[in-house]
Design brief:
Layout lengths: L2 H28 L4 E2 L3 E2 L7 E7 L9 E6 L4 E6 L11 E4 L2 E12 L2 E10 L4 E7 L3 E2 L5 E2 L9 E8 L6 E7 L8 E8 L5 E9 L8 E7 L4 E6 L3 E6 L12 E4 L7 E8 L5 E7 L4 E6 L27 E5 L7 E4 L11 E6 L3 E6 H5 L10
Parallel strand pairs: 1-23
Antiparallel strand pairs: 2-26, 3-4, 4-5, 5-6, 7-8, 8-9, 9-10, 9-11, 12-13, 13-14, 14-15, 16-17, 17-18, 18-19, 20-21, 21-22, 22-23, 24-25, 25-26
């Protein structure tokens, strides 16, 4: 890394850490900081809750589902209702260390639009794919990833639906990987037999070498992918493998001032272009929130020479929220109203006590952020 850049980042980190410490001290004095409590805590998985996803029921959003991994050699994908109750008939057991999970809507399969859930199965070097809401396997027993590589064990995964043609891709990370091309991207398609196939379309993604890359999140509407290079930053690329300079890094959200690891990433959409990016400051039991749209232009009507252009890949901190999760890894969020229980939208995050915690978005937003509930 360029030493001047590193020094600049360290100086910025020291200054910001001082600001944060001042805020913490102020909280201790006047008790103004609030630890947000969940509305619902799910029933426990057997081993190790790790990463959640939200499937929104298009007919009745109150009957939407939470899907969460239980990361173990005798692992599972749990399916919950919005009361946090396990739906046993939909839960998939006997998976070999399922790590992360994501969902996407409208894969064309046997002539019908089919919603899917995709998880990484680390100990088999596969991704597993299920139709929603049935949780029916449609992958012929799993699809191998990172074929030909010495470092294969898949960990992070996020799905991307391209706006221009509705093509669906899986972007997959791994437990260990090289300093370049840490992520591989696959297009997911009907194989003609009622199942799906995955074809490699690109390799991309820088890695600092500091720890690992797990959390990946895609902004379908804006066409960006973000991933947590732990203890370094959140990296940003184009999600579309076919755009010009697709493998060129667009920006980095520095996380050098986090307590330890930057982990789960989730994206809250206000509209097609604006919203928030939430990142877990894992060991601090808090989430940091950034503007999805980056930094807006500054217009000086009286002196146009002072105008500052928009910087869509510069995401400055907006807010920090302390939550009840402990050592939170994966998370997900939606601005869709999910019935009477979550009329303002839902934020869900894992906690290290084998549960997932479900929060009302209004509690996360407080008086600082927009509540853009879609019904």
């Amino acid at each position: 890394m360029n030493h001047k850049i590193l020094i600049k980042q360290l100086v910025t980190s020291i200054v910001f850490t001082g600001i944060v410490l001042s805020a913490i001290i102020g909280c201790a004095v006047d008790n103004s900081c609030k630890v947000i409590k969940p509305k619902v805590v799910t029933q426990k998985v057997i081993h190790d809750s790790d990463d959640p996803a939200i499937w929104i029921n298009p007919v009745d959003p109150a009957k939407s589902l939470i899907i969460g991994t239980d990361k173990d050699t005798e692992g599972a994908i749990y399916v919950y209702n919005l009361d946090g109750e396990i739906i046993e008939e939909k839960t998939i057991r006997n998976l070999k260390r399922p790590n992360n999970v994501d969902i996407e809507y409208g894969l064309m399969l046997t002539g019908q639009l089919t919603d899917i859930a995709v998880t990484t199965e680390r100990e088999t070097n596969k991704i597993r794919i299920y139709s929603l809401p049935e949780m029916k396997p449609i992958d012929n027993g799993g699809i191998e990833v990172f074929v030909g590589e010495e470092l294969r064990a898949p960990m992070g995964v996020s799905l991307y639906k391209r706006v221009s043609d509705d093509a669906i891709f899986a972007i997959v990370g791994r437990k260990e990987g090289p300093l370049e091309n840490y992520l591989w991207q696959y297009i997911i398609e009907d194989d003609g037999t009622g199942n799906v196939k995955a074809t490699l379309v690109r390799k991309f993604g820088n890695y600092s070498g500091l720890k690992e890359i797990e959390s990946i999140a895609v902004d379908d509407q804006l066409g960006y992918v973000y991933y947590s290079d732990e203890q370094y930053g959140v990296r940003k690329y184009h999600a579309d493998p076919d755009v010009e300079n697709a493998n060129e890094e667009l920006g980095i959200i520095s996380t050098l001032d986090y307590i330890e690891d930057n982990e789960g990433i989730s994206i809250y959409c206000i509209d097609d272009k604006t919203g928030y990016i939430l990142v877990s400051d894992q060991s601090a039991n808090r989430f940091r929130i950034y503007p999805r749209e980056g930094t807006l232009a500054e217009i000086d009507i009286e002196d146009p020479e002072d105008n500052v252009p928009a910087r869509p890949h510069l995401h400055k901190l907006l807010k920090i929220v302390d939550v009840s999760t402990n050592q939170s890894d994966g998370s997900e969020v939606t601005s869709v109203a999910l019935g009477d229980k979550f009329p303002n939208g839902l934020f869900v995050a894992m906690s290290d006590n084998q549960t997932y915690q479900l929060y009302d978005w209004a509690d996360i937003a407080g008086n600082d952020l927009v509540i853009a509930t879609k019904k």
